[in-house]
Design a protein that fits this description.
There is one protein chain. The chain is mainly beta and 469 residues long. The chain has three domains: 224 residues, CalX-beta domain (Immunoglobulin-like), CATH 2.60.40; 126 residues, Cadherins (Immunoglobulin-like); 92 residues, Immunoglobulin-like. 6% of the residues lie in helices and 41% in strands. It has two helices and 33 strands. The strands form nine sheets. Strands 2, 3, 5, 8, 13, 15 and 17 form a seven-stranded mixed sheet that branches. A hairpin with a 2-residue loop joins strand 32 and strand 33.
């Protein structure tokens, strides 16, 4: 009997162990990860994955170039469930904290993952109260894809404004308290769920205001709800947290948006120089709705300029900021000195530098010439003049007619500049060698004065100085 009793006890103990083991196997194991690039809901439009649990997003600059920076960078944090049989509904607790990491010594790489100094993080709110007023009305066609935001205040430096997280098509809020956490539901039968993040356009204002905010980081943690005993799931060791890093747009060099046309001026016949000013940062928009600035910087960085002259004994040139001649903007001032030789072109080289500390020497260069003449004829042609081009009438009051015959197959560019080099009209079209072309430019809305009509065919171009009556 004693032996039988001991056998019964042993069987019960073994049965209990089996029950426990079976129960442990059916408790779901939950973890966080980032889908791989190329997978459904993986990093998209330039976003990247770092290690297993970090998503890196960069804000887009506002761009005026077709095909550049199409689509906002986006990606997801995946909540994974592993279970041997229990696929019932799960409710997870979570905290999501959003921080400015500019002073947190933030580093990240595929080998080491993400690292930062906790004490250097600065909490950022779910919805910020900091507003930036976008331009209104917005020029049509300035940003091509995705569409430019409407001309209205936008919230910046807040989770909803910066990363726009969503879960099951609902806003996913910043929750920092573990005692009162937010909740995430994994539906019955589902083995995973996704939290989506999208980095929007950078907080820039055209022009010359980059509004760089520095690196920011969102930290997501999951855990069983505090009042759940026993817990309905386990969290995989080392996979209870995921990170979304948001950075400013990458730096790009300024590009030439409006080439300064070659200028023709009357040689001074007195002891006083002939002075002029060229507006480098005009706030106007061209007829094709591109900026009227000489250079364009996709980051909207404030630009600094340097100018060089091929013959300083004939022409002086310098950069002037806050110049009243161009409504307080930056101007290139030039002076044609008495005695400057008539008919000789003086080359002016203008360099624009965005002066970003992380990439010194990020600049772009353009050239134009100033040619002093004893007198300015009604029309003036360049040395590489396209002989077939006819610009008429001159003087003109309503419609300027430009006729030509293509010397080569390719793109023809017709432009009209005012006397200080601001582009008033531009059109590009493709022609075949030997084909005639014609363009009519309505100039009734332009003020009276001197203008330059320019036609460019490949490496050849011609300019005609016209008078608007």
């Amino acid at each position: 009997m004693k032996i039988f009793h001991l056998m019964v006890v042993a069987i019960c103990i073994l049965s209990g162990l089996n029950v426990v083991g079976f129960a442990q196997q059916t408790i779901p194991i939950v973890s966080l990860s980032i889908p791989d690039v190329g997978q459904l809901d993986g990093p998209r439009n330039g976003a990247s994955k770092i290690g297993t649990n970090t998503l890196l997003l960069k804000e887009r600059p506002r761009t005026v170039f077709t095909g550049a920076n199409e689509g906002l960078e986006s990606g997801s944090i995946r909540i994974n469930r592993i279970a041997t049989g229990n696929l019932g509904r799960l409710v997870l607790g979570y905290t999501l904290q959003y921080h400015n990491a500019s002073n947190a010594n933030l580093t990240y790489s595929s080998s080491t993952g993400v690292r930062f100094t906790q004490a250097g993080l600065m909490p950022l709110p779910n919805t910020s109260t900091t507003l930036r007023l976008l331009p209104s009305p917005l020029p049509v066609g300035v940003v091509f894809s995705p569409p430019f935001p409407p001309g209205m205040p936008v919230l910046i430096n807040g989770l909803q404004g910066d990363l726009n997280p969503s879960y099951a098509r609902r806003s996913f809020i910043n929750t920092a308290s573990e005692s009162q956490p937010g909740t995430i539901v994994i539906d019955s039968g589902a083995t995973s769920s996704l939290i989506d993040f999208t980095a929007r356009f950078s907080d820039q204002t055209y022009c010359c205001n980059p509004a760089l905010q520095g690196p920011r980081i969102a930290i997501l943690r999951i855990f069983p709800l505090p009042n759940e005993n026993p817990p309905s799931f386990q969290v995989q060791r080392g996979a209870d947290s995921a990170f979304v890093i948001l950075t400013d747009p990458p730096n790009v060099a300024p590009v030439i948006m409006n080439r300064i046309p070659d200028l023709y001026v009357t040689t001074p016949n007195t002891l006083n120089p002939l002075n002029g000013a060229l507006d480098l940062e005009s706030p106007t928009w061209r007829s094709d709705m591109r900026p009227g600035t000489i250079f364009y910087d996709d980051n909207y960085d404030p630009l600094s300029y340097t100018v060089q002259v091929s013959d300083a004994t004939s022409v002086n040139a310098r950069i002037s900021t806050n110049n009243p001649a161009v409504a307080g903007r930056t101007a290139l001032l030039y002076s044609v000195l008495p005695g400057a030789p008539s008919g000789r072109a003086i080359t002016i080289t203008l360099t624009a530098d965005d002066r970003r500390t992380e990439r010194l020497g990020h600049f772009s260069v353009t050239n134009f010439t100033i040619t002093p003449l004893a007198s300015i004829p009604t029309t003036v042609a360049l040395s590489n003049d396209i002989q077939s081009v006819i610009v008429s009438p001159n003087p003109v009051s309503t419609t300027l007619q430009i006729h030509g015959k293509a010397e080569i197959t390719g793109v023809v560019i017709v432009r009209l500049f005012n006397s200080v080099g601001v582009e008033m009209f531009a059109e590009r079209f493709t022609v075949s060698e030997g084909a005639p072309y014609s363009r009519l430019i309505d100039i009734r809305h332009l003020s009276s004065g001197m203008y330059i009509a320019e036609v460019e065919e490949g490496a050849n171009k011609t300019s005609r100085k016209i008078v608007k009556q």
